TrEMBL record:
This is Beta-xylanase. Belongs to the glycosyl hydrolase 10 (cellulase F) family. Residues 1-20 form the signal peptide. Keywords: Carbohydrate metabolism, Glycosidase, Hydrolase, Polysaccharide degradation, Signal, Xylan degradation. It catalyses: Endohydrolysis of (1->4)-beta-D-xylosidic linkages in xylans. Residues 357-457 form the CBM2 domain. It comes from Micromonospora saelicesensis. GO terms for biological process: xylan catabolic process. The lineage of its organism: Bacteria, Bacillati, Actinomycetota, Actinomycetes, Micromonosporales.
């Protein structure tokens, strides 16, 4: 075959192929855009999620709706403390892992719910108090967030820590009695364990500007001003027969603090207003550019924890309800999240200056950031390679008397009291010139005076 004919044939095939691909793409997007919750939310830069009980994934009506309509999931129970650490120090991730796999196979992101909460604690934790409980709680946060690292879009780090009623203060609980700083200790531990997840505070009865939501607002403002790592606030929105007129204004005032907001557990009591309320909540979220997604607390009415309230978007046979249509219309009518949102200044605390001399021609340096409370601490250590880079490092610290390391991540510890050494694990050993890695450890006793020194090999 002469070259020209061969070329023409190839071009024809290429053009036909491109046309076919183009047509398919057009058809696909026309067919899906605006007709499912997940496609409509995604078009607007948001997610639409559902709480899932993994036992139902094998029910085909359930799985069909879930996979068709939702692009985010949260475990209704399977990532809670009682499920993930049924005995102290013995972790169980079966349900959570199963949900993550399902999500990954179906193009869904995962909300993590919830690292610390006064309810659904394992029996052993319910009976604890003081620094033993604080240490156990922080260890729980560290272990669970580390297990799921890289797989969670947003974590509810702390759930329902504020009191109902007019006080605007904290709820009494065993966790609260370990000291008012328990929430920030949890957020710092979660950040150290999974720096890529958005860290949320989540609560209910916050559906408008009221004493409880204002208490939370003040905490978030304080956290932002002091560099406590918080990225988002979840509004559960378990709703009755009316919606606060300042629902959107409340979301907006949190967004204005520099955090994302998410509707995290939406369900609405049945009755004449149900469909309107679902629509109004969706519109409110769409009107707040930092409202990044909505999660409903279950798929069908019969899946709901709210018994006979028929509180969800699908009836028990899997049919779409009027509430569904209102939500879909509101998603389609709403604005998209601006593609280039203004970036906030970094919220994490400035890291301490290196405590060893800056890297010279070789070697490495290490600096520590400490999160301490009475009876315990978490140390996050940053290792920086010198100008020659390193293929392995070793960091030494000397602990105060009475202090001991109980748990280490992203490094291997030798010793637990007095002079303790930490060696790199495989994946963070090799560092180019000036490159940085991080590891951490938790201890009991005082973290005062920890000054890391680094040796490179
Ligand atoms: C509920 C679950 O839906 C139920 O299956 C379980 O028995 C109790 O917890 N706020 C929350 C959720 O943050 O974790 C709760 O989920 C509902 C209220």
């Amino acid at each position: 075959m002469n070259h020209r004919r061969a070329l023409r044939a190839a071009v024809t095939i290429a053009v036909t192929g491109a046309l076919a691909a183009g047509m398919t793409m057009t058809l696909t997007s026309t067919a899906s855009a605006g007709t499912t919750l997940r496609a409509s939310a995604a078009e607007k830069g948001r997610y639409f999620g559902a709480a899932v009980a993994t036992g139902k994934l094998s029910t085909s009506v359930y799985a069909t709706i879930l996979n068709r309509e939702f692009n985010s999931v949260v475990a209704e129970n399977e990532m809670k403390w009682d499920a993930t650490e049924p005995q102290q120090g013995r972790f169980s991730y079966t349900g959570g892992d199963r949900l993550v796999s399902h999500a990954q196979a179906n193009g869904m992101s995962v909300r993590g719910h919830a690292l610390l909460w006064h309810q659904q604690q394992p029996g052993w934790a319910q009976g604890m108090s003081g620094s033993a409980l604080r240490n156990a709680a922080i260890n729980h946060v560290t272990q669970v967030a580390t297990h799921f690292r890289g797989k969670i879009h947003s974590w509810d780090v702390v759930n329902e820590a504020f009191a109902d009623g007019g006080s605007g203060g904290r709820r009494d609980s065993n966790l609260q009695r370990t000291g008012n700083d328990w929430i920030e200790a949890a957020f710092r531990a979660a950040r150290a364990a999974d720096p890529g997840a958005k860290l949320c505070y989540n609560d209910y009865n916050t559906d408008g500007i009221n004493a409880k939501s204002t208490g939370i607002y003040n905490m978030v403002r304080d956290f932002k001003s002091r560099g406590v790592p918080i990225d988002c606030v979840g509004f559960q929105s378990h709703l009755g027969t009316s919606l606060a007129s300042d629902y959107q204004a409340n979301l907006q005032r949190f967004a204005d603090l520099g955090v994302d907001v998410q509707i995290t557990e939406l369900d609405v009591m049945t009755g004449g207003n149900q469909a309107n309320i679902f629509g109004a909540v969706t519109r409110a979220c769409m009107n707040v550019s930092r409202c990044t997604g909505i999660t409903v607390w279950g798929v069908r009415d019969c899946d709901s924890w709210r018994g006979s309230d028929n509180a969800l978007l699908f009836d028990c046979n899997g049919n779409k309800k009027a509430a569904y249509t209102n939500v879909l219309n509101a998603l389609n009518a709403g604005p998209a999240i601006p593609t280039d949102p203004p970036t906030d200044p970094p919220t994490d605390p400035p890291t301490d200056p290196p405590t060893t001399p800056p890297p010279g021609t070789g070697g490495c340096s290490a600096s520590v950031s400490l999160n301490s409370w009475t009876g315990g601490f978490v140390a996050t250590v940053k290792v920086t390679a010198g100008s020659a880079g390193t293929s392995g490092w070793n960091v030494g610290v000397t602990l105060a008397s009475g202090a001991s390391v109980t748990n280490t991540w992203s490094a291997t510890a030798t010793g637990s009291t007095g002079a303790v050494r930490f060696a790199n694990v495989d994946y963070n050993g090799r560092l180019g010139a000036g490159q940085v890695t991080e590891f951490g450890f938790q201890g009991t006793g005082s973290g005062a005076g920890i000054t890391p020194t680094c040796t490179a090999s």
